[in-house]
């Protein structure tokens, strides 16, 4: 898939060594600030540092079931500008079965910051579309898309709220689960 500004979207597995190597240099946050003496200080956005470490350390993490974990990468001129790690399963509630599409982690390259969130919005839309497609392929009527966001990450909270997600629960003081149920 490609959007108008030359960004190509590709799905890769946790077996794609080239893609995982590319994540080693992926930067979705600024460096930790240092004191005048050179000591590393607390990062101003620790959730960004955590996500960057997640992608660099694990890439596309270990799935409980083979083939359920996929990594979506957006590249411009060969450089990763966005990444999302996802896990897909089937769940059931009182209304029947549905695709359960968990967004494990999402990150936007620092080079793409300050552009009105267009790439982040596009990334979330691609993920929602993929969840609906998975439901169609499985003959299921619905797809639940959800993920966890640090409550202090206001841009992400505003983005998912604006894109139709609802706050489902507070996991902890800082961690929120946001979700949306999509019809097929």
Automatic annotation (TrEMBL):
Organism of origin: Cutibacterium acnes
Q: Which Gene3D superfamilies match?
A: 3.40.630.30
Per its UniProt record, what SUPFAM superfamilies does this chain match?
A: Acyl-CoA N-acyltransferases (Nat)
Please state what the protein is called. Answer: N-acetyltransferase
The record's InterPro entries line, in alphabetical order, gives: Acyl_CoA_acyltransferase
């Amino acid at each position: 898939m490609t959007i108008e500004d030359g960004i190509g979207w590709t799905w890769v597995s946790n077996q794609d060594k080239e893609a995982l190597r590319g994540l080693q240099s992926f930067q979705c946050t600024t460096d930790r600030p240092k004191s005048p003496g050179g000591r590393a200080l607390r990062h101003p956005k620790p959730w960004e540092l955590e996500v960057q470490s997640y992608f660099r350390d694990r890439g596309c993490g270990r799935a409980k079931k083979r083939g359920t974990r996929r990594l979506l990468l957006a590249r411009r001129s060969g450089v990763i500008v966005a990444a999302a790690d996802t896990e897909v399963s089937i769940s059931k509630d009182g209304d029947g079965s549905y695709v359960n599409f968990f967004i494990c982690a999402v990150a936007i390259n620092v080079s793409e910051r300050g552009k009105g969130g267009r790439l982040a919005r596009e990334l979330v839309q691609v993920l929602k579309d993929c969840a609906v497609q998975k439901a169609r392929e499985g003959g299921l009527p619905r797809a639940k898309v959800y993920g966890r966001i640090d409550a202090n990450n206001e841009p992400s909270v505003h983005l998912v709220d604006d894109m139709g997600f609802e706050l489902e629960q507070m996991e902890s003081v800082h961690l929120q689960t946001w979700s949306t149920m999509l019809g097929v």
